[in-house]
Description:
- The protein is mainly α.
- 76% of the residues lie in helices and 3% in strands.
- It has helices spanning 7-22, 41-44, 47-65, 70-95, 109-129, 133-152, 160-167, 169-203, 205-220, 223-240, 254-278, 282-290, 295-325, 338-346, 350-387, and strands at 26-29, 37-39, 104-107.
Amino acid sequence: MRFRPDKLGVVIAALALCGVLLAPFSLFRANRIVQGEAKSLLESLPAWAGLLLLAVVIAASLVALARSPAVIRLAAATVCLIVLLLGIGFSAIHLTPPENTYARVSPASGFWLLCFAFALLAADAITRLKPRPLARILFLAAALLVIAFVLLSGSWDGLSLLKEYANRAETFWLEAGRHVMLALGSLFAAVIAGLPLGILCHRTPSLRGAVLNSLNIVQTIPSIALFGILIAPLGWIALNVPGAAAIGIRGIGMAPAFVALFLYSLLPVVANTVVGLGGVPRDVNEAARGIGMTDSQRLWRVEFPLALPVILTGVRIVLVQNIGLATIAALIGGGGFGVFVFQGIGQTAMDLVLLGAAPTVLLAFVAAIVLDALIDMNAQASNRKTTA
Length: 388
């Protein structure tokens, strides 16, 4: 019988082949800023460890090529990713000379290609399994536990990324708190302001176009430009309004970043509120009116619960957007993970850039998965209510 490889498996196997044969697995540098020396997979590890990792990659690639069950594909991808994470940490121990505190070992393009390939295999397997929302959250929790285990076990302590973290641990968690505060705080403020505005736009069609068009104009302003535009008025308020400076309103810092993120957040919240309320079946509204519900009762007991999945989709868009945009706040003194990104760019220290970029990507990824699961659970509950 003729063998027919899985189409996605061909892509994954090609990426794995490039990651093993064509791209370096790790990068060795004598110190944190000099240009590094690329090391292949077999050069980065002791012979036995390199061959073991190569065998695991080949086995997982064969599983990807075959039309194997989703559970086996997920298991193969998981094992390969764990071995890759442990392998890159072991490469730092192998390549760093004893008692040398200046040398740096970083993951290179081959490592990232392999991680991407088998993360793609894992995502494909999970999609084929069609897990329920709660199961998706459990998969995410398991992945986070693996990452936490790798970090806490000390197997990555020799990597330059963890050395950069060790030198800035206190600052890292301070900026992490600011980043989360900016992203979540601006989202909370946008929900508080955007929901009533969206309801008003839904109930008043003549107002809808003007409000949505105005918010759409805000979305077209580049983020750095909007941060800059806000410096002057907020600086004036800090100087001329009693008590404004005492509560943190200044021309630079977190205040203009918070206001900018709030303004960017309004359009998705307002627009999705309008769309969600507009999508409530007319028959449901008529039935609610027929049993004597007032407009306020229909809004909160009927329309809003049915529109909630669409509104939560807007919240998801805002949160992921804000986590990314909060990085730019560092340019105006707003703090956040962008501090490390722009410091690293200025010092040509790419591991410092990664120290800011990696947690930003992880936060956005976690927020997207959790909110997607909540949206699906809410949509299922709404469908059951409508059917009943």
